[in-house]
Amino acid sequence: MSLENQFKQKITSYTPLDQPIFLYWKGRVGLYALLKAYKIRANDEVILPAYTCVVVPNAIIYLGAKPVYIDIEKNTYNMDPKLLKKAITDQTKLIICQNTYGLSTNIEEILNISKSYSIPVIEDCTHGFGGTYNEKPNGSFGDSAFFSTQWNKPFSTGIGGFIVTYNPLIQSNLEEINKSLIKPRFMETAMLSVLITIRKYLFSDKFYFKLVKWYRLLSQYHLVIGSSQKDELQNSQIPKDYFKGMSSTQMREGIVQLDTFKDLLRMRKKNGDVYTNFLKKHDKAHVPRSLHKDHSFLCYPILVENRAHFQKLAKKAHIRLGDWFNSVIHPIQHNFHHWQIDPNSFPNADYISKHVVTLPTDTKHPEKILKYLEKNIAYLK
User: Same structural domain for residues 78 and 108?
Assistant: First the structure.
């Protein structure tokens, strides 16, 4: 069996998507391929939550289409379905729904609305691989789904991603579109292999902040293989060599990572319970118990006052805090017009993005996190 088929088989053993899987250099490239397969073009509209990563609207804008944003619910951080109907026009061609931090919500309502208008739904499962909604796997509800295997995603291939579609026509279109995928260069895969090794052996709470700082800086300037290129964060022009396939280095690492995925998922859900118990006990904002069954807890969101100072204290205590999403289109802080969004128009998303930090759920020592939270409880909302 080829390495590619081994990897795909491993993926389906953890989440029975039961359809052909298409692999890409990054998850955003998979989304771009999907949009092309749906023949998204200039003046078409694609609906998405106003609480996402900038690479999602980028993929839409690269095709000349218009991202149409919808505010989120404060308790789920996912698209508010009550606002969906109002956003649909004659130009609406797709709806993207997201399982933020691993939580899936309101899927039936979103699908019912989409079906009444005959608009396909794409699931953004970049946070949700391995999770479920009503005991069905994330990525099995919509017409298609895309996943990320980037650093800090449910499982990692360094960078990477894949897509699945349940639409035979879209499958056929993808097979044709993928003929133009660029093959990763040797130096790219060699560098990625080094980065994976560094992460494996040096990634600890002690070195985390220094490594992340240098990695983000170097990747922006193309000095290392990065999550986002400088071009993706400065404007909405498609970067050179964007449409790239997955390398054998990524597939091999994915197979290794998936060998321990069930244990990791179990740990994340267990730590989700631990954090909820603590926050509820102290009467602080937390993930409601009613949402736990549909949450895979890629990370755990909390809301804080004076986030910059709270993060500074965490760094001093060697506590890993995530900054997803520090903007309505993370990590953009300025020039929102490039992405056709005004944060002030989405009060829930804007508020959350200014107060949220995420707790690590992939830790064997949540008590260290709780000790830090208790010491700094006054900052928690």
Answer: yes
**Would 112 be classed as within a structural domain?**
yes
- Nearest CA to 7 among 150, 167, 121, 149? 149
In angstroms, how far is CA 20 from the centroid of its own chain?
Answer: 21
Phi, psi (rounded to 5 degrees) for 334: -140, 170
- Cβ neighbours of residue 89 closer than 8 Å, sequence gap 6 or more: 45
pLDDT per position as a tens digit, 37-67: 999 999 999 999 999 999 999 999 999 999 9
Same-domain status, 172 and 195? no
231: DSSP letter: H
| DSSP letter for each residue of 276-320 | HHHHHHTT-----GGGGGGB--SEEEEEBSSHHHHHHHHHHTT--
Q: What are phi and psi of 88, to 5 degrees?
A: -80, 135
Structure tokens at 145: 């789904």
Q: Provide mean pLDDT across the span 333-357.
A: 97
Domain match, 142 and 94 both: yes
Q: What is the CATH number of the domain that holds 87?
A: 3.40.640.10
Say what the pLDDT of residue 233 is: 86
Q: Looking at this protein, which amino acid is placed at residue 133?
A: Y
Q: Is residue 253 part of a domain?
A: no
CB 68 within 8 A of CB 92: yes
**Residue 254 counted as domain residue:** no
Tell me if 40 is assigned to some domain. Answer: yes
Domain that holds residue 9: 3-180
Judge contact between 162 and 11, C-beta under 8 A.
Answer: yes
